[in-house]
């Protein structure tokens, strides 16, 4: 492991920029063996907003062009909108700079394939930021599944529900545009569920073999914020549903929506096997519902003991952690991989497999038929 601080360049400074900057703040307090790191440059278009972001988030420098940064830093965080994922990430990898890119990997399968190929050619970590893999209860669930506690995996159910676009007067943003985002609820939310299922059961069921999917847009246009009377078309889905069959014959049912009233950030996943079941809900992040062996019903396990994944770094047993801690765990693992020259998971390969399913859902909806993914 290098003793030199890792200079970090970050493209994007809003929602995800704050989440990752907060994680970098927490690392030295709770992960004493984390590599030294330096917030070198934050990148964006608006120089005044950049200056404020640099001061707030603790970066030494600002830049308005990522091309000036990717070769100058030791790690590049691509937290920009989806349409900016491919070119900057590929350029960084070609320069030999490790990359952490937000999900989904790209707006299209072709873009994701380009990123995967660049990662394969580079001898540095290429990571996709599926932060829910780093929830202690999810790691606990994977231990149970890998140990065979659920038996043969038969079925996975997942949903991700939000309501921030329920109001048809909610303003238009880049997330409503196919060219900028690639897809709507499918890529924004569904990518998380598809990856989480693959993380939990992929070793036991294989890859997704076929998919049947349906996309729905409920509001066709939205007002432009600050422009009285002006609207822009919505060219992505508000909601999706999909049925998947894996190589093993196990099946999955997934859905997501950004227009479900009463659901702020409701991400749940359940795994059912021949010998047991488990369920996780992000709204009860520290808990896992488990039924195995001779149990006649579910037991709720509080995943806050010191021998549970990551928990020994935080508070005394029984004290809960939150959503923001997933980014601390993610940054710890990524920066350790950078410092030691190791692989990181979820990798661009992992994220490409998610994109392959997303693309299958889109094709199934367009063709009105089940799609073979092999």
TrEMBL record:
Gene3D superfamilies in alphabetical order: Dihydrodipicolinate Reductase, domain 2, NAD(P)-binding Rossmann-like Domain
Domain Gfo/Idh/MocA-like oxidoreductase N-terminal: 7-125
Family annotation (InterPro entries): Gfo/Idh/MocA-like_OxRdtase_N, Gfo/Idh/MocA_oxidrdct_glycsds, GFO_IDH_MocA-like_dom, NAD(P)-bd_dom_sf
Keyword Oxidoreductase annotated: yes
Coiled-coil blocks: none
Residue span, GFO/IDH/MocA-like oxidoreductase domain: 138-279
Source taxon at top rank: Archaea
GO molecular function: nucleotide binding; oxidoreductase activity
UniProt keyword terms in alphabetical order: Oxidoreductase
Transmembrane segments: none
Secretion signal span: none
PANTHER family (UniProt xref): BCDNA.GH03377
UniProt-recorded name of the protein: Predicted dehydrogenase
């Amino acid at each position: 492991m290098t003793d030199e601080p890792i200079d970090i360049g970050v493209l994007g400074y809003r929602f995800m920029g704050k989440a990752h900057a907060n994680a970098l703040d927490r690392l030295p307090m709770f992960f004493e063996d984390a590599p030294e790191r330096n917030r070198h440059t934050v990148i964006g278009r608006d120089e005044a907003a950049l200056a404020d972001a640099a001061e707030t988030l603790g970066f030494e420098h600002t830049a308005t062009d990522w091309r000036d940064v990717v070769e100058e830093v030791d790690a590049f965080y691509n937290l920009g909108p989806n349409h900016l994922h491919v070119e900057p990430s590929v350029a960084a990898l070609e320069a030999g700079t490790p990359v952490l890119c937000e999900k989904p990997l790209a707006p299209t399968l072709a873009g994701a394939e380009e990123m995967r190929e660049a990662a394969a050619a580079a001898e540095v970590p290429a990571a996709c930021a599926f932060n829910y893999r780093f929830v202690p209860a999810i790691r606990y669930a994977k231990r149970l599944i890998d140990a065979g506690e659920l038996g043969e995996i038969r079925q996975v159910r997942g949903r991700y529900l939000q309501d921030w676009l329920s109001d048809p007067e909610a303003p238009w943003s880049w997330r409503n545009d196919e060219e900028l985002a690639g897809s709507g609820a499918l890529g924004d939310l569904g990518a998380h569920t598809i990856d989480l299922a693959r993380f939990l059961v992929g070793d036991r069921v294989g890859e997704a073999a076929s998919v049947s999917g349906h996309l729905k847009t409920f509001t066709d246009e939205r007002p432009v914020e600050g422009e009285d009377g002006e609207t822009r078309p919505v060219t992505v889905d508000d909601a999706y549903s999909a049925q998947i069959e894996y190589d093993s014959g196990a099946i999955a049912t997934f859905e997501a929506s950004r227009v479900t009233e009463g659901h702020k950030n409701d991400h749940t996943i359940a795994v059912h096997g021949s010998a047991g079941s488990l369920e996780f809900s992000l709204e009860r992040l520290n808990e896992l519902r488990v039924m195995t062996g001779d149990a006649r019903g579910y037991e709720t396990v509080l995943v806050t003991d010191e021998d549970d994944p990551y928990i020994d770094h935080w508070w005394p047993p029984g004290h809960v952690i939150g959503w923001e801690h997933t980014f601390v765990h993610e940054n710890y693992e990524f920066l350790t991989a950078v410092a030691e020259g190791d692989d990181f998971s979820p990798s661009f390969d992992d994220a490409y497999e998610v994109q392959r399913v997303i693309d299958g859902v889109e094709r199934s909806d367009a063709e009105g038929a089940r799609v073979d993914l092999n």
